[in-house]
């Protein structure tokens, strides 16, 4: 129920209705003109093809994201973070369930001791994506992260599809970590992994273990996340410092029990096993993009974001490789426990007391991952709601805490529901698809940003850019598909050169239309082109069932977009154009379109 004392605003326009206190009315969810009456809604549905074309071809501008979008949250987020905060947020966001759980699963089932190489491959892919994210985060320091970047460079529709998968990524990632939290907690209590879960006989193995502890942990994280960003940062400091101490203990104590004979069968399933593990272990690097969503709360984005993002990723990759080496030197890969590999490894080598230290450290790390994920996912949802692709109620920022309370609570509620019944294996594969898909789009957006500017790039150069990007994707998809169906190497002599020629074509034939103002990715177009290639290649190593789930989710978000999101964002954009800021329009049509 809306509180009294409101300040009216136009139905899809400049801002949201400002209220003192909590509100939850139709105007908070569907304030746009298309939803004022059934007649308006029917007319909007009839205009769907024209509106879809408009949203597909229209790109946002940097100034729109930096000024107008932020104004729709009623209150500004507080600028309290520096590069030191971002490094610890990055470490806290990434080092968690991936390394402490998936390392054991992939080492035992796919890569063997060569799981360290799987982490290297995934780490290189993640680092390339970090570079792409960094340039955007420096120049467009807003809470929307990759959603805002894609809206500016690839348009509303592509940004919306990415947004749906970003939200899925965070919900699934949080659910996976919460369930892993329960597994390590049971180890700490000297119990089996499923002892504290409720078993439902007759259900599928992937969904039969209900996890009430995961829900309790998520509720605690939600309370912390809505209190304040700086408070979350301080708690993350403490948890991450304890986590680092435990990691150093695992490496040092574990290596004292190293047995090099365990490395004799280094890659039992060959390169295919290494890359198959890499695709799943990419899950372990998910989270760094949450740091880019904090750009709006960073004091000096041009300095702090590059140091924070790149620094945390380099540290994380190094730690992962050391931990993977340590685990496989301690015990033969066939004997690794899949649920709590590090704790059980110490038990196997006669250091049973150490498993409690490891379990406690893992819990600290997973708590950090959940906290930073909660902060990041709420800011994504906030910025998406600012465009009215999702209800603007989610965009409201609390005046007292300076945090998006509605977005935080809703996202964590969804996370709790998934965490309650879904197994880690299902979650990890689906999460990797969403993440690799989004990272490929961000790399593509960087190429578009550097080589295409409306009014500067000629039609001929625009067409060359489209052809070259298509060749990059074509070569990468063909390479990935060939990897999936053949053990021969001859086909790569055809597919790899297609990728190379596409990248070379951009470098040689298309002049750069824009240079970065503050910080730029080096070796463009080679670095983003390589990022696309590796991400697409890793997608080819993920199981088919995960792609079916991914397709089902994409259909769901498309249905919502056609019936609601398209019309709400269209009304909002047209209202903004009518109230254009002094100095020019917020949005520009792609050159050569009507």
Topology, please?
Elements: H1 26-29, H2 38-46, H3 48-57, E1 58-59, H4 62-71, H5 83-94, H6 97-111, H7 115-139, H8 146-153, H9 156-188, E2 198-199, E3 209-210, H10 212-227, H11 229-255, H12 270-281, H13 288-292, H14 301-330, H15 341-348, H16 354-386, H17 405-421, H18 424-451, H19 459-485, H20 492-509, H21 526-539, H22 544-578, E4 588-589
Antiparallel strand pairs: 1-4, 2-3
Can you walk me through this structure?
The chain has 594 residues and is mainly alpha-helical. 67% of the residues lie in helices and 1% in strands. The protein contains 22 helices and 4 strands. The two termini are 43 Å apart. The model is unreliable at 1-21 and 581-594 (pLDDT under 50).
The gyration radius over C-alpha positions equals 24 Å
Overall 3D shape: globular
Sheet with the most strands? 2 strands, antiparallel
Order of strands across the biggest sheet?
A: 1-4
Q: What's the overall average pLDDT, rounded?
A: 80
Q: How large is the share of residues in beta strands?
A: under 5%
Sequence of secondary-structure elements = HHHEHHHHHHEEHHHHHHHHHHHHHE
The total beta strand count reads 4
Low-confidence stretches: 1-21, 581-594
Distance between the termini: 43 Å
Briefly, what is this?
The chain has 594 residues and is mostly helical. It has helices spanning 26-29, 38-46, 48-57, 62-71, 83-94, 97-111, 115-139, 146-153, 156-188, 212-227, 229-255, 270-281, 288-292, 301-330, 341-348, 354-386, 405-421, 424-451, 459-485, 492-509, 526-539, 544-578, and strands at residues 58-59, 198-199, 209-210, 588-589. The two termini are 43 Å apart.
């Amino acid at each position: 129920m809306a509180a009294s004392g409101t300040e009216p605003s136009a139905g899809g326009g400049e801002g949201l209705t400002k209220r003192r206190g909590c509100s939850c009315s139709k105007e908070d969810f569907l304030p746009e003109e298309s939803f004022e009456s059934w007649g308006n809604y029917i007319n909007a549905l009839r205009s769907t093809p024209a509106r879809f074309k408009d949203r597909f071809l229209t790109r946002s501008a940097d100034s729109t994201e930096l000024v107008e979008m932020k104004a729709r949250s009623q209150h500004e987020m507080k600028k309290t973070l520096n590069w030191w905060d971002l490094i610890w947020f990055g470490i806290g966001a990434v080092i968690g369930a991936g390394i402490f759980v998936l390392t054991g699963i992939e080492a035992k089932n796919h890569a063997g001791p060569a799981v360290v190489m799987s982490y290297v491959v995934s780490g290189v892919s993640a680092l390339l994506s970090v570079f792409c994210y960094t340039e955007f985060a420096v120049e467009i320091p807003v809470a929307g992260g990759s959603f805002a970047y894609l809206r500016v460079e690839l348009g509303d529709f592509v940004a919306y599809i990415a947004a749906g998968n970003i939200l899925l990524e965070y919900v699934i990632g949080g659910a996976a970590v919460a369930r892993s939290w329960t597994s390590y907690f049971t180890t700490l209590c000297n119990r089996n992994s499923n002892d504290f879960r409720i078993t439902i006989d007759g259900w599928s193995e992937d969904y039969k273990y209900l996890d009430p502890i995961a829900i309790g942990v998520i509720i605690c994280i939600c309370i912390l996340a809505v209190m304040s960003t700086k408070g979350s940062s301080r708690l993350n400091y403490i948890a991450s410092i304890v986590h680092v101490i435990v990691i150093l203990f695992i490496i040092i104590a574990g290596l004292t029990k190293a047995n090099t004979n365990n490395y004799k069968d280094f890659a039992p399933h060959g390169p295919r096993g290494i890359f198959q593990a890499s695709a799943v272990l990419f899950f372990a690097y998910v989270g760094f993009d949450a740091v880019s969503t904090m750009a709006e709360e960073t004091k000096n984005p041009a300095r702090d974001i590059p140091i924070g993002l790149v620094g945390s990723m380099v540290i994380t990759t190094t730690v992962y490789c050391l931990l993977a080496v340590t685990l496989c030197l301690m015990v033969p890969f066939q004997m690794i426990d899949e649920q709590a590999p590090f704790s059980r490894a110490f038990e196997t080598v006669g250091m049973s007391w150490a498993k409690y230290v490891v379990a406690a450290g893992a819990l600290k790390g997973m708590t950090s991952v959940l906290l930073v994920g909660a902060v990041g996912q709420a800011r994504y949802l906030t910025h998406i709601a600012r465009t009215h692709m999702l209800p603007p109620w989610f965009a409201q920022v609390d005046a007292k805490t300076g945090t998006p309370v509605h977005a935080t609570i809703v996202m964590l509620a969804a996370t709790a529901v998934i965490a309650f019944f879904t197994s880690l294996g299902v979650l990890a594969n689906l999460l990797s698809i969403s993440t690799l898909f989004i990272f490929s789009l961000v790399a593509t957006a960087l190429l578009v940003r550097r080589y295409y500017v409306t009014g500067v790039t000629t039609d001929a150069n625009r067409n060359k850019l489209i052809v070259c990007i298509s060749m990059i994707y074509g070569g990468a998809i063909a390479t990935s598909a060939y990897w999936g169906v053949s053990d021969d190497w001859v086909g790569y002599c055809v597919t790899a050169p297609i990728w190379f020629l596409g990248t070379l074509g951009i470098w040689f034939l298309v002049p750069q239309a824009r240079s970065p103002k503050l910080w730029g990715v080096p070796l463009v177009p080679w670095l983003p082109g390589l990022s696309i290639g590796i991400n697409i290649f890793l997608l080819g190593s993920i199981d088919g069932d995960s792609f079916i789930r991914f397709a089902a989710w994409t259909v769901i978000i498309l249905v919502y977009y056609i019936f609601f999101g398209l019309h709400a964002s269209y009304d909002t954009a047209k209202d903004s154009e009518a109230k254009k800021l002094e100095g020019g329009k917020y949005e520009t049509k792609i050159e050569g379109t009507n």
